[in-house]
Amino acid sequence: MSFDIASLFQLILPATGETLYMVVVSTLLAYLIGLPLGIILVVTSPGHIMPNPWVERTLGTVINILRSAPFIILLVALIPFTRSIIGTSIGTTAAIVPLVISAAPFVARMVESSLKEVPYGVIEAALSMGASPQQIIQKVLLPEAKASLILGVAITTISVIGYTAMAGTVGGGGLGDLAIQYGYNRFRTDIMVITVVILVVIVQIIQSLGTALARKLTH
Amino acid sequence: MIQIKKLVKKYSSRQGDVIALDNVSLNISPGSIYGIIGLSGAGKSTLVRCLNLLEKPTSGHVIVAGQDLPLLSSKELRQARQNIGMIFQHFYLLQSRTVAENIAFPLEIAGVSKKEISIRVKELLHLVGLEDKTDVYPAQLSGGQKQRVGIARALATKPQVLLCDEATSALDPQTTLSILNLLRDINQKLGLTIVMITHEMKVVKEICTDVAVIHEARIVENGPVESVFIKPQSDIAKQFISTVFPNELPADLLKELATHKDSEIVRIQFLGSRASDPIITDLLRNCDVRANILYGSIDHLRSTLFGTLTIELLGNSDQLKEAHRYLAARKLNVEVIHREL
């Protein structure tokens, strides 16, 4: 059994689309959850603007637990939860749920480390001017950490691409699944090579964009 | 303008409590430039940070412009802080904002309208002489320029008090002078009260009207700069003064002088117009003593002249007494360093 170029495209094009869909939506949602969590982790840490050991420790522990669960386990364990919010546990959209749950704590830690790069003196300067915690977050922490946050987005996005390869387990599709199904299980080296090349190109583009944008934002 | 009463600051650590400020009381009058000098670890930084409550005092009162800061709610405190500007050793400018945007920052926080902000920012850029750096980012500025931005930013909300935490310690001597001159101009133009923390007596000598010496968490000495410089009470104050007016004689010379009979070594200090009087000639004409000039210096203490003269007086004890009487009558501050009779 052999494939011509056209049927090859018919396999690869939708798979690329599925990967991009999962990556973009998951990363966006992961940031929607992870960004505020990262901010909370930083501002509630000891000696920061709203120190609160209880909140910091509890949140930190939950994040660590979620991050220590292997993604493939999370993917399966979350099936009932996914079904309850999406209506199904199978398909590309359903794969987004475990992807988000897995990426959000990662994002929270990325955001935390970016925000911690802002020298505390700058925050104190803002405090000395009478800035409120909200103003400090919006006008000092986030803008000052912008470049580092952007690099974090690139790193997160690339990690999520890696995770989507496992989405095939719940019928999520995508390039990683194609590589396993056709390239590995059916010994189709050509498909394997093409999917890997496409993944490499996507990763390169995201990293270059992130680096360039971060450089532009660094003054 | 600022009253500090029985201020105590303790830090608890596993090794036990560390007392950073031990019952500190100070009164800082409006329009003064108040220097607080101390060695590192003396508690001076903690003290200035208590003045806008960046550091929460353990107990005591910090009354700025009539408000006792530790008693305020967080909202009232934020309001009060807009009346207290602060500049830092490491400037702490926002790297993601241009010079103009940095200066606009406290105004944004205070909720000033965009139009008013742009007018005010222009005034401030002019005040600190950075009109040509409006749209430049801090990373491209020199240390002195960064501190000018810091000063403009601190003054944006027209505060009555400006706190300076080692504001010139990261700058070279030339730039330090230009920043100090700027601070003095601002003090005179705006009638602003300035509190300066420093470990450099040079800073105090240049611009301060009053000084407090802090040592091991306590204020050991304070008062108008002239009186502290002329009659320092504590050893630590004397040490600080000798860094700007070195008047120690070389040990070899002292040893040699000690062999002289009927002699004493005295240090005469004089301020202002006294500095231009022909003291030695008058002394020798009026008293029957001989004098040997060992060391002399004349410098500025803020804008007044401040001179030191170390001389050896030769004569018997009656003659020396007569010389002392003469100098005392001229209202000169005389200190006997060594006497051999």
Task: Tell me about this structure.
The complex is a heterodimer of chains A (219) and B (341). By secondary structure, chain A is mostly helical. Chain A is 79% helix and 0% strand. Chain A has 10 helices and no strands. Chain A has helices at 5-43, 53-68, 71-77, 79-86, 92-116, 120-128, 133-144, 146-164, 175-184, 189-217. The N and C termini of chain A lie far apart (58 Å). Chain B has 341 residues and is of the alpha/beta class. Chain B folds into 2 domains: 2-235, Rossmann fold; 251-340, 2-Layer Sandwich (Alpha-Beta Plaits). In chain B, α6 (173-190) links the parallel β7 and β8 (193-198). In chain B, α3 (99-109) packs parallel to α5 (143-155), α4 (114-127) crosses α5 (143-155) and α5 packs parallel to α6 (173-190). The radius of gyration of chain B is 24 Å and the shape is elongated. The A-B interface holds A 119, 121-122, 124-132, 135, 139-140, 143-144, 146, 217, 219 and B 52, 54, 77-82, 84-86, 88, 90, 92-97, 105-106, 108-110, 137-140, 153, 157, 163.
Shape annotation of chain B? elongated
Radius of gyration of chain B using CA atoms only:
24 Å
- Which regions of chain A are unreliable across 5 or more consecutive residues at pLDDT < 50? none
Quaternary form: heterodimer
The fold-level CATH name of the domain at 22-171 in chain A is MetI-like fold
Strand order of the largest sheet of chain B: 6-7-8-3-9-10
Summing up helix and strand content along with how strands pair, one would put the structural category of chain B as alpha/beta
Mean pLDDT of chain A: 92
Spatial gap, N to C terminus of chain A: 58 Å
